[in-house]
Structures are given as C-alpha cells and as structure tokens.
Amino acid sequence: MIAGLIFCASLTAIDGDTVKCDGQNMRLLGEGVPFVSGIDTPEIGSHARCIKERKLALIAKGRLKELLAEKGLRVVFSGSVDKTPSHRPLINIYRANGEEIGKTLIWEGFAKTWSPRQRNDWCD
Fold this sequence. Notes:
By secondary structure, this protein is α+β, with helices and mostly antiparallel strands. The protein has helices at 51-68, 101-107; strands at residues 4-6, 11-15, 18-21, 24-28, 38-40, 74-81, 89-94, 112-114. The protein has one domain (4-114): CATH 2.40.50.90. The protein starts with a strand and ends in a 10-residue tail after the last strand.
C-alpha cells in the first residue's frame, strides 16, 4: 500500500484511538512507527478490564471527537494496516497548526504511548 493523504467526507471517533473515515475504521499512530510504536487509549465497553477503564475510554473518545470537529485536519495514511481481522489502515491526523492528534491526546493525558512489548494498565 502507498502512503499518502486521505480525503474523508465524514470523520468520526469510534473510541479514543480509532476513527471512521467514510465507513472505514482506521487506527491512530500518534506519529509512531507501524508495529513499533504508537498510541493507546482505554478500551471501550466489554473490551475494558474494569469500570475505571470504561469511564476513561468514554472521556478519551469525547476528547477525540472534539479534536475531529476542528477545521483543517489532514489525514495521512502510513502505508501499513494493523494485524486485526479488519486490517485497519494506520494513520496520523494533523491539526491545522501541524500538531498530530495522537500526540495531543498523549500530551493531554487521554492516551499513553503504545509498544508491542507492553500493555497499558488503565485500571491501577
């Protein structure tokens, strides 16, 4: 697959690190490197390991929703897809000021860095 700019008529938050672009789920990278680094947000619904994680997931999704409502966003495909059965494209979304949304979520405390060597615990 070729990396490049993606045009979305509709861009919505599925959870804190997944968006839907015109019906296609896509995973935020936070300027990470596919399969090496990225961002992680709490799991929503039945995927959460505790009530605290469910609550944090709704808050993270709400913040992502706010960020997606901004004007001038650029969605950039990394050229890779994740290893889930749906093969979600791995993307970065840049705000009009050049900040990457995933990095913003980390900086604001709604997300943590992701690494394949560790699982973030949202229940502690």
